[in-house]
TrEMBL record:
Membrane topology qualifier: Multi-pass membrane protein
UniProt entry keywords in alphabetical sequence: Membrane, Transmembrane, Transmembrane helix
Source species: Elliptochloris bilobata
Residue numbers spanned by region Disordered: 202-221, 468-493
Cellular component GO terms held in the UniProt record: cytoplasm; membrane
Coiled coil (UniProt feature): none
Family annotation (InterPro entries): Mpv17_PMP22
Protein name in UniProt: Fe2OG dioxygenase domain-containing protein
Family as reported in the entry's similarity comment: Belongs to the peroxisomal membrane protein PXMP2/4 family.
Cellular localization per UniProt: Membrane
Record bears the keyword tRNA processing: no
Highest rank taxon of the organism: Eukaryota
Length: 493
């Protein structure tokens, strides 16, 4: 049995949306049962609450006395902490936790065609007044309801619930209605001056709570809420969308589900960022294109900096070299890197909790062991061939520079990637890498155009004083080699 029941309604949610911003900053209001059943209400929002009565036939206990309602409009991505609905003033005055008979949510925004708004989550926890805490201590069953405009969810008033936060995805608006067996302290009717000041009455349309559909509207239709079970033996995190996929369900696109109950004993529910879910909106393609362009531009800048360091730019800008470097950044680092970080993140999530030490370490090691060598070798090979070199030249370049360059990069990238994987959302991780690649591109471009860059790493030897072989008899007083004068002066010291 599901924790929630959901319905597709024919309610005029746009009417409520017109007043949502005003009501969102108002206190909660009360409508007595007799006024609702008689349709004797005076605002457009109250008329829509009245039209919820037929949906609740057979669900709402006979002892109900009225409805408390309010509107919430969340900033994009903002969630709501888990809590219990209660008679707030009675709790403050008497420390008594009195719950409504039913809690319900009418969604004023949301659809399944693109990234979903944060779901309402209802858990199998109730407040134990004797123990003074929620029981069970850890939920074992959770119902997730993703917002769809015009859909209505109802659940037992004593159940814990909240809203999972998401990355910013637009306005999340809801009409909340609690159905009570008594009038909570401090609640009253919508004040007449508020109705007049903000034109909340709107066009008068009768509402008798009979359930008769208005012309052009359809009666409410209950929608199925599947009940799924998490695997009994699995010590790794499980994504809800993967669990749905295993049951031939999906969260996005045609035929997407909007509510599901999950039995998850031994697991705890936690939110994932937007990249943990697939997208059918074309956003991934746009992101990849933007990252490709960014990669091309940053690698071009890196080469220009490299030319400045090695002195090439002081003589004449090697435009061809910059364009080739930019091509590598755009053709390889952009698309391949974007795909790599998506795959790496998803693989790590299947084994470890996001943000954990094991999760971050797995991604760092995977990046340095797999992508790092491919990136360094790919750069040397691409640039050598693009500049007219043969495959034999590529082989020699890799033999001379690959290992030392790769080891040098290990001094920088693991620490950077640890912070990147820890703090940066996966969709922005390649952008962070691209910015760091200003250093990487400058370094690799510089190596690519040096005969023996490792000479700068030899302790105690600089370019000016390192010994070198000269033809016999060619050494003179003006040369920096070891000659009698130098030895004599050294001895005098």
């Amino acid at each position: 049995m599901s924790l929630v029941r959901t319905f597709r309604t024919g309610l005029d949610v746009e009417t409520i949306n017109r007043h949502a911003e005003v009501l969102a900053v108002c206190p909660n209001f009360w409508i007595p049962r007799d006024l609702l059943e008689a349709g004797d209400v005076h605002t457009e929002v109250e008329r829509e609450v009245c039209r919820l009565l037929p949906v609740l036939q057979g669900i709402l206990p006979p002892s109900w006395t009225g409805a408390e309602f309010w509107v919430q409009v969340y900033d994009a991505g903002k969630g709501l902490a888990f809590h219990f609905d209660k008679d707030e003033q009675r709790f403050v005055d008497q420390h008594v936790m009195a719950h409504p008979l039913l809690s319900s949510v009418l969604y004023l925004a949301g659809d399944a065609s693109s990234a979903r708004l944060g779901p309402t989550v209802v858990v199998d926890q109730r407040f134990d007044s004797v123990l003074g805490k929620a029981t069970p201590e850890v939920p074992t069953r959770s119902a997730l309801v993703w917002p769809v405009k015009g859909h209505f969810a109802v659940f037992e008033g004593g159940l814990g619930h909240g809203v999972l936060g998401t990355p910013p995805r637009g306005r999340r608006a809801t009409l909340l209605v609690n159905w009570w067996d008594h009038q909570p302290q401090g609640l009253g009717l919508v004040p007449a001056d508020l109705v007049a000041r903000h034109d909340l009455a709107g066009e008068h349309r009768p509402c008798d709570g009979s359930g008769a559909s208005e012309p052009g509207t359809a009666p409410a239709e209950e929608t199925a809420v599947a009940v799924l079970r998490a695997p009994d033996k699995d010590d790794s995190p499980i994504m809800v969308d993967d669990l749905l996929s295993a049951h031939s369900m999906r969260l996005l696109g045609e035929g997407a589900v909007s509510a599901v109950t999950v039995d998850h004993e031994g697991f705890q529910l936690f939110p994932l960022d937007e990249d943990a879910l697939p997208s059918c909106s074309g956003g991934d393609a746009q992101t990849a294109a933007a990252l490709t362009a960014t990669s091309a531009g940053l690698w071009a800048i890196g080469d220009v900096l490299s030319q400045k360091i090695d002195g090439t730019l002081d003589k004449k800008w090697d435009m061809k070299r910059t364009l080739l470097t930019s091509a590598y950044g755009g053709l390889f680092i952009g698309p391949v890197g974007h795909t790599w970080y998506q795959v790496l993140d998803k693989a790590a999530r299947r084994r470890f909790a996001p943000g954990s030490l094991k999760f971050i370490a797995t991604k760092v090691i995977g990046d340095e062991v797999v992508f790092g060598p491919v990136h360094v070798a790919g750069f040397f090979a691409f640039m050598t061939v693009a500049e007219g070199g043969s495959w034999q030249d590529v082989k020699e370049k890799l033999q001379n520079d690959f290992l030392s360059a790769y080891l040098a990069e290990l001094a920088f990238w693991p620490a950077f990637q640890a912070v990147n994987f820890w703090k940066v959302p996966v969709r922005h991780q390649l952008l962070a890498v691209n910015l760091a690649c200003l250093v990487d591109a400058t370094f690799l471009c510089w190596i690519q155009n040096q005969e023996d860059w490792t000479r700068y790493l030899r302790w105690g030897q600089t370019e000016a004083t390192a010994p070198y072989a000269t033809p016999e008899g060619a050494q003179g007083a003006d040369q920096p080699g070891l000659h009698p004068d130098a030895q004599q002066h050294s001895a005098i010291k």
